[in-house]
Amino acid sequence: MKKRFAxxxxxxSGQGINxxxxxxxxxxxNSGYNIFASREYPSIxxxxxxxxxxxxxxxxxxxxxxxxxxxxxLAEEALHKYTPFVxxxxxxxxxxxxxxxxxxxxxxxxxxxxxxxHIDTKQIALDNKAPEIMANVVLLGYIWKLxxxxxxxxxxxxxxxxxxKNIDMDAEIRCLMAGYNIDKPKDFSIDKSQLKIKRNWNKxxxxxxNDAIGLGAISAGCRTYFGYPMTPSTTIxxxxxxxxxxxxxxxxxxxxxxxxxxxxxxxxxxxxxxFTATSGGGFDLMTETLSCAGMTETPFVVVLGQRSGSGTGxxxxxxxxxxxxxxxxxxxxxxRCVIATSDVKxxxxxxxxxxxxxxxxxxxxxxxxxxxxxESMFNISNLSKPLKIERGLRSGKNRYEITESGISPxxxxxxxxxxxxxxSDEHSEDGIxxxxxxxxxxxxxxxxxxxxxxxxxxxxxxxxxxxDAETVFIGMGTTKNAVLDAVKExxxxxxxxxxxxxxxxxxxxxxxxxxxxxxxxxIENNQSxxxxxxVKRECNFEFPEKLLKFDSRPFFVEDILDFLEK
Amino acid sequence: xxxxxxxxxxNVRNTWCPGCGNFGIHMALxxxxxxxKKTPSDIVLTFDIGxxxxxxxxxxxxxxxxxxxxxxxxxxGAHLANRKMTVISDIGDGGLLHEGVDHLIHAIxxxxxxxxxxxxxxxxxxxxxxxTSTTKEEKPMYAFPDGKAEGSINIGELVLSLNPTFFxxxxxxxxxxxxxxxxxxxxxxxxxxxxIMQVCPTYTPESNHEWFKERIKETxxxxxxxxAVKCVKDMDIIYTGVIYQNKNLLDYYSRLxxxxxxxxxxxxxxxxxxxxxxxxxxx
Lengths: 566, 283
Ligand SMILES: Cc1ncc(C[n+]2csc(CCOP(=O)(O)OP(=O)(O)O)c2C)c(N)n1
Ligand SMILES: [Mg+2]
Known about the structure:
The structure holds two protein chains of two kinds. Chain A is of the alpha/beta class. The mean pLDDT of chain A is about 95. At the A-B interface, strand 7, helix 8, helix 10, helix 11 and helix 12 of A face strand 2, helix 2, helix 4 and helix 9 of B. Strand 16 of chain A pairs parallel with strand 2 (about 60-65) of chain B. The structure holds thiamine diphosphate and magnesium ion.
């Protein structure tokens, strides 16, 4: 690929890969480049292998490439695993004594002119009077040398990030320098001459999708978060918990997702803003509350962080196979809104929008994210201004008054305000339970009318690409990122129609693009093409071509390029 | 105008069986609220699903009839959002011990400042008389002509095993005493668990008013949990009154470091909040 590079850092989980990955990512960013960093790790605490890949360029980077230019490894299994994904003329650096590549690996290395360097990082750490565990920092120093970047930048960062930890900082720096002072092979270089250094990038922020969701919620005046740990949503709890002093937010770990959902509903009913985040299994437990919020017309916001698979699935890997459950969860028929995020920019914005929709329409809003967005690091120079808060509060005679828009008056329960009954039994306008067939029909119609009102007010999908694109991909979530990155690597005229507001669906743009004669391709990170099925259901349009991936891996840039070559 | 019981009445026709213990419970609850000078708009009541929950139509206040077993977490969510409101959670023995027993356990250890009214009529009444954990073991019940094959749960014992800050027991046939207990519960700053022995003339007719009258005995607060446990374990006498109270433990919200000294409630704080101050951790 022309204008981007990738460096991968791997080791056993427990060897500090995440921390070093973060330092590396921020270090490259602070050197004036745009980065995207993604994590791969197993669902265990120690052992197994973890990897951090940082892709960088002078243009925006949103997705990972399958192949890296530098592979650095502290662990045997990881080295075997990732060797076949090193670029031709790339370099492998490892710290493993007597490591043997397999026959095929050796062949791959030779054919692709890949260099292999062994560094005894442990010994170097010990020689520098540092504990063995700091071997990883020696490797970090050497990677920095290979990248040929300013050592001061990484040193400063190391000091900042490790400042909070109780460690021997001088030893860390000695290890960093020792790694950096090793000569790099003469014939290896990362040719950054094509890349322009952008001054403003070093001031920009490095956020994960989950950070952006947390920040968006804070901006939106959300005052309480109820969670229960589940990858890939757990770090929302972490981020909000670690900033709770600054924000004053009430952050609570509930006894279950059932409870978290009820706490959200109770708090929203009382008139504050609350949300919860989970993954598929936890979301399943919340579905009774989703249905109850639908019937009682209580605002409700839940972030559904997708990983892959049914059951426990593949807990720490990515996918987008939970659209169906988002659309269908909960018994009975009730209006809902489903939104999909793809990167930090829209995660920050869409969570705010979710609160406004939930409040104004008095419906549950499900905000989809994916591990690939939730836990990956993006850099962003500026977050947009906070969205204006819209609550739609107004008083009235009856809490469930039948209106043309379907939206009834709602006011905050407070002393000296008129009291009312919120009822999960079917009820008449005053909230009192009813079994009268006509009232039941009217109330059902009233609630569902909110969907029509909402659909009219939702923004259209976002189109990226030239007006006269030959090929247009259509999808939601992080598939956008791989396509947009791939577009930069080809001369073909490619477009992407990006859906953020999934339901109620605005399908007209799809039909328009198709009728204009473009080649239209559905792209999804799931097996059955769930978004495509929704489109079919809503407007009877069948996608002529589909690019589906469901191996728990995100779309890599090469996946898109290979598909276009076929 | 002085607050009256009638201010808590509604004009919706009640659906309980004649002689149902829920009448006495609501009478006591309304009396307690009036005595405490709480107007209906000061009160948030969450209701479970069951005969107890059908009482939602019978009382004024901000009311939320939610899902079976979930009355407690719904009430907690409401309470945390605005502690100026008096929050009362209503639930049956079925909803409490079966569908949502985890919520009871965690609410006790969290010591949220709300009051829990347990309508213990010793069966799933609204679904027409199935056995619960408080049904007598030998008693034939819906679909189980020889009685349940499972053991029982003594609510007082369960609650007291979790280091609660307030446990009381009342009886639906003694609404005046029950009103006093409820008042104590509402005044208590913490999670107040009130078990109400409730007559169910339809499904547990053998435990009628006479049966209870013979066994019920008022008691004083116990100084220690172990004394309180001894008292609730008694099978021959059903002791009522505030059985245990500990005023020395802080409620959940008061333990939140970041809310200390805050004058506003979460409901008053919904506005755009500047994130600049925390953005530097992402550089
Ligand atoms: C999730 C769920 N499961 C089952 C029911 C059916 N259901 C309604 S009331 C009830 C039992 C109520 O028993 P209890 O909580 O003791 O209240 P009571 O009617 O005795 O006052 C059941 C099982 C339901 N509404 N929701
Ligand atoms: Mg019962």
